[in-house]
């Protein structure tokens, strides 16, 4: 009876979503298309298909990829009360994770399983990291659990899931025995479901799960995926179709291989000669031998320009499934010398060239976009684990880099670049010679880092201490690393104590990027002015760190201009800093993140500080933190080139300040985070002419009006926990550019008013609620008193 009940629920689910009809229409459509080729009434068929399509829900992505039947089967297994554990089994690159993500994010699945968690397991399995990822997806905030041991984390996960109806996805499990470490964290209940993806069928047998073997794409599905990537929205030219189909057939139905080949073909001229060259490079037929899969991926690599090849290989340094910050990646490429300045007048900055390099890798389907910025750019990226394997294979052959996982410690050579994914002490105890050839050193793991951990690496130019790498003390030999161009310190201690940044780092004259936000910086010495190559500076300072006003040992009347500096983040916005802005010391500064301490600066001087910003003529992005309690802004105080402004903890802002912000001619992104707007927020015709993104988070605002012609280019709006806001402007829904509106933790009045809104122009409106809203609002009110 339980089984039939489950099938009944599933049939209702399919009928509601229209998947059964979609499958029928899919078959009908291709039958009609085949008929269209041999009959003269093709236009009539097109009209039939168009009319039928209008009556169906939009085709989701997994239909396009040929995953419709797979989706249906796995959903049915998850809804079956007799199955606790379900597994998706398939070879690398076959779409296991893609299918699991579609299921995990599906609206009906979210409703059926109110509690959901996701964790990537990976080949380099670390149980502690798996539980941390699960907690992050379940509870969003995990800062209080970061330092706990694995068993403690397991208990927290188990207690959180107890009594709940939940779905847990364990992605990319390699070995069956991993289940023994994890299963105790998932308490048995009527609502428990575990979804596992793996390449190893033994995993399914060991976990007693119902396996679904993910098939490869058939010829039709393969061709459709290829055309979607090479000719988006268009059809393949008739004369190229036979050759194109021959290329696709060489991929054997493996989605990753098809997408990779499509990335190569898309960059070629649309001629038989060019496509024939691609076909001749594919000299194999796909089998289950994964070494042969690498051939088609290597073809993508071989088609890259000589400038792009090292940039792509560099991605393999990061751990599997690691979300790589795009800005960091480009800065590393620069430090490594992959992006060279041309020296020609009016030539683009290296950062701009790096963005073009990155975009081409995305266009070629070799890099995946993981997270986007509010302005539409890419914030984080990652690569498929097979592409990462290719990077490691290619790099080991010529010593470009090596990855130390613990199991291969004794087989490592003396690589140019070294990525440590194991305990640093384990590696250090295994080496006996000076690692003089190593130019770049990455720490992504290790809890036992010692005081002298860097003594073997005096010649490094890149030092990246991030991920789960903790340094109990500052390494003693920083001052000897005179070749250092890139320094990043993100996590330095397992305790609550914050490590003070050593003063010796300010004597490293070759530094281009300094990111020491894992340390506390309370003082910036005068040696700062000697770092003429600095391009990007990120520091953390709780007590305030001011920029020094005089150069050591030089005539104080001589101005030192930091020509190369483009990013300055974390310094105090005080009178000395404002003086330096007025003197034009940072004429090429593009990104600025300042902290204003109201207790340190007199109220009468605040406007003078803000007025100094107008001298930063190249500034594009500005963030002001801990602003005074009654912030007043005038348009003439800020440079006109500003495209993004973030005001955080801004106290109280009057209506004239919002009016001033609306006059910035190039402002595209505005974020207001934590503060009060006591007057009505009135946006008049012509205000915010280029604004595309507007975010208000934890802002007390009573009303908001929008006249016709205001914010004419707005495409994304976020309203998050804005106390007192009862409705959104009626004119908002008439904006033709508005694509997405997110309202999180609205007041009851605002939530009710949005129920009757009729969105236009396919705008995506979603209302959400987060955990702990009452507590957070109470804390916010206390803060803003």
Automatic annotation (TrEMBL):
Keywords: Plant defense, Repeat. Residues 74-234 form the NB-ARC domain. PANTHER family: DISEASE RESISTANCE PROTEIN RP, DISEASE RESISTANCE PROTEIN RPP13-RELATED. Residues 438-647 form the Disease resistance R13L4/SHOC-2-like LRR domain. GO terms for molecular function: ADP binding. This is Uncharacterized protein. The keyword Repeat applies. One of its GO terms (biological process) is defense response to other organism. It comes from the Eukaryota. SUPFAM superfamilies: L domain-like, P-loop containing nucleoside triphosphate hydrolases. Residues 317-391 form the Disease resistance protein winged helix domain.
């Amino acid at each position: 009876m339980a089984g039939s009940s489950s099938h009944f629920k599933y049939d209702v689910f399919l009928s509601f979503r229209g998947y059964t009809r979609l499958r029928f229409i899919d078959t009908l459509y291709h039958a009609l298309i085949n008929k269209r080729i041999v009959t003269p009434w093709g236009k009539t068929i097109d009209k039939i298909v168009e009319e039928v399509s209008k009556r169906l829900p939009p085709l989701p992505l997994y239909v396009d990829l040929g995953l419709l039947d797979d989706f249906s089967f796995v959903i049915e297994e998850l809804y079956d009360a007799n199955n606790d554990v379900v597994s998706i089994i398939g070879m690398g690159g076959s779409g296991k994770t893609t299918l699991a993500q579609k299921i995990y994010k599906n609206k009906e699945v979210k409703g059926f399983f109110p509690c959901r968690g996701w964790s990537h397991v990976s080949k380099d399995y670390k149980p502690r990291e798996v539980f941390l990822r699960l907690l992050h997806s379940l509870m969003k905030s995990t800062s209080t659990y970061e330092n706990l041991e694995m068993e403690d984390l397991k208990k927290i996960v188990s207690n959180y899931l107890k009594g709940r109806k939940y779905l847990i996805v364990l992605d990319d499990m390699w070995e069956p025995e991993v289940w023994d470490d994890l299963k105790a964290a998932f308490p048995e209940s009527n609502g428990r479901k575990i979804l596992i993806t793996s390449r190893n069928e033994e995993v399914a047998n060991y976990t007693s799960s119902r396996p679904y073997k993910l098939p490869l794409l058939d010829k039709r599905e393969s061709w459709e995926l290829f055309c979607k990537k090479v000719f988006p929205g268009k059809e393949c030219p008739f004369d190229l179709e036979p050759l194109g189909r021959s290329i696709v057939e060489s991929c054997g139905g493996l989605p990753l291989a098809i997408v990779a080949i499509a990335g190569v073909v898309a960059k070629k001229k649309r001629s038989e000669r060019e496509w024939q060259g691609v076909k001749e490079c594919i000299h194999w037929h796909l089998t289950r031998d994964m070494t042969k899969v690498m051939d088609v991926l290597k073809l993508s690599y071989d088609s890259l320009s000589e400038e792009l090849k090292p940039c792509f290989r560099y991605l393999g340094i990061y751990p599997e499934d690691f979300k790589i910050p795009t800005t960091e990646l480009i800065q590393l490429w620069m430090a490594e010398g992959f992006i060279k300045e041309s020296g020609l007048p009016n030539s683009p900055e290296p950062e701009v060239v790096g963005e073009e390099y990155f975009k081409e890798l995305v266009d070629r389907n070799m890099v995946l976009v993981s997270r986007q910025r509010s302005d539409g750019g890419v914030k984080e990226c990652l690569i498929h684990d097979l592409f990462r394997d290719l990077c490691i294979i290619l790099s080991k052959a010529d010593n470009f880099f090596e990855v130390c996982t613990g199991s291969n410690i004794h087989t490592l050579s003396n690589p140019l670049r070294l990525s440590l994914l194991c305990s640093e002490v384990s590696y250090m105890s295994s080496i006996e010679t000076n690692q003089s050839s190593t130019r770049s050193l990455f720490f992504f793991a290790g809890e036992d880092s010692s005081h002298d951990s860097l003594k073997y690496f005096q010649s490094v130019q890149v030092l990246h201490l991030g991920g789960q790498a903790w340094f109990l003390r500052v390494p003693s030999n920083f001052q000897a690393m005179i070749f250092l161009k890139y320094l990043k310190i993100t996590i330095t201690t397992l305790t609550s104590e914050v490590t003070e940044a050593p003063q010796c780092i300010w004597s490293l004259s070759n530094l281009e990027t300094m990111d020491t936000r894992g340390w506390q910086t309370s003082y910036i010495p005068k040696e700062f002015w000697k770092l003429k190559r600095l391009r990007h500076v990120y520091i953390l300072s709780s007590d305030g760190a001011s920029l020094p006003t005089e150069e050591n040992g030089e005539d104080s009347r001589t101005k030192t201009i930091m020509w190369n500096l483009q990013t300055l983040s974390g310094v105090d916005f005080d009178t000395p800093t404002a003086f330096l802005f007025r003197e034009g010391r940072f004429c090429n500064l593009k990104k600025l993140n300042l902290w204003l301490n109201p207790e340190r600066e007199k109220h009468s001087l605040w406007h003078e500080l803000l007025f100094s910003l107008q001298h930063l003529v190249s500034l594009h992005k500005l963030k002001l933190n801990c602003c005074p309690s009654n912030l007043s802004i005038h348009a003439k105080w800020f440079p006109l080139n500003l495209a993004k402004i973030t005001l955080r903890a801004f106290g109280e802002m009057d209506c004239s300040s919002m009016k001033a912000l609306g006059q910035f001619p190039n402002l595209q992104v505005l974020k207001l985070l934590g503060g009060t707007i006591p007057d009505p927020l009135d946006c008049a015709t012509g205000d915010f002419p280029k604004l595309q993104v507007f975010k208000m988070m934890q802002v007390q605002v009573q009303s908001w009006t929008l006249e016709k012609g205001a914010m004419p280019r707005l495409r994304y709006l976020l309203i998050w926990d804005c106390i007192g806001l009862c409705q959104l402007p009626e004119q908002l829904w008439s904006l033709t550019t508005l694509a997405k509106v997110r309202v999180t933790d609205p007041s009851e009045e605002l939530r009710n008013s949005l129920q009757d809104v009729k969105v236009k122009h396919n705008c995506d409106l979603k209302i959400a609620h987060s955990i702990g809203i009452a507590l957070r609002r109470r804390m916010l009110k206390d803060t803003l008193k």
